[in-house]
Amino acid sequence: MISEIALSKGYTSFWEEFFPWLARYSQTINKDLSTRLYAPLSLSDEPQHRSINNIIAFTHYKNLCVDKAFVFKKSVVKAKQVASKFPRNSLSSYRLTPINLKIIMFQVDKLLYYYGEGTIVFPSFPGCGVLSNCIGDIIKGNKLIEVKAGERGIIMSDLKQLIIYCALNWLNKINPYQIEEVELFNPRQGLRWTLNLRIFLNTISDFSLEELFDNMGKYLSDMSNEIVLDIS
């Protein structure tokens, strides 16, 4: 089995065949199509600890969506448990310094402001073929939102990740989410990109939504069958 991260960062021939203009579009987003909602965070954390701060921020945001009085320390404990599962996590050297705390709470405040009401946090998408079950970030109304809190612009794998989740959701015939828009949000940078799903796919491919997602399902199923044949 593979993860959506592996699929989004590899399998170049598939992506180039069905989404030939994706690379160019990702470059255009950073130049012209994203919106600056507010000034970027002026504080900077240590690169090796940035992902930990991001995990703590999103964990606390998720908990506050359920319970507005959720204790921050409990979110930190849970987030560290999540971070411990990642290789080279730098937890042994991490400290919740005043700067790290300010960076975390800055992100939490922005996430709550834009996505604090009527949201589904960590929506799940059933796997298909060789692709494992996946967990997204946020669904608000009919919009799927991925949060990318790095000190970088939008990259092609971010867009691929959204496409994968939407494809799995469309292939799921048992109570799928109603996703009509996709969005990327960077709470550190104050950047947001939003687009209707069908318009997005029409911009990066000659195929319709239905054709694209059917082909993705077939591709993932064929990969699964090849693995079974190799084992047998």
Mean pLDDT: 93
Q: What sequence of helices (H) and strands (E) makes up the elements?
A: HHHEHHHEEEEEHEEHH
Question: In one word, what is the shape?
Answer: globular
How far from one another are the termini? Answer: 16 Å
Contiguous helical run count: 9
Class derived from helix and strand content = alpha+beta
Q: Percent helix among the residues?
A: 40-55%
Radius of gyration: 18 Å
Neighbour order of strands in the largest sheet: 1-8-7-6-5-2
SSE blueprint:
Blueprint: H1 4-9, H2 12-18, H3 22-33, E1 35-36, H4 47-66, H5 72-83, H6 98-115, E2 119-121, E3 124-125, E4 134-135, E5 138-140, E6 143-147, H7 156-171, E7 181-186, E8 191-196, H8 197-204, H9 209-231
Parallel strand pairs: 6-7
Antiparallel strand pairs: 1-8, 2-5, 3-4, 5-6, 7-8
Helix pairs in contact: 4-5, 4-6, 7-9
Compact description:
Helix content is 53%, strand content 12%. The protein contains nine helices and eight strands. It starts with a helix and ends with a helix.
Describe the structure.
By secondary structure, this protein is α+β, with helices and mostly antiparallel strands. It has one domain. Helices cover about 55% and strands about 10% of the residues. The chain is built from 9 helices and 8 strands. The chain has helices spanning about 5-10, 10-20, 20-35, 45-65, 70-85, 100-115, 155-170, 195-205, 210-230, and strands spanning about 35, 120, 125, 135, 140, 145, 180-185, 190-195. It has a 6-stranded mixed sheet. Strands 3-4 form a two-stranded antiparallel sheet. The longest helix is centred in the last third of the chain and has 23 residues, at about 210-230. The chain starts with a helix and ends with a helix. The model is unreliable at about 225-230 (pLDDT under 50).
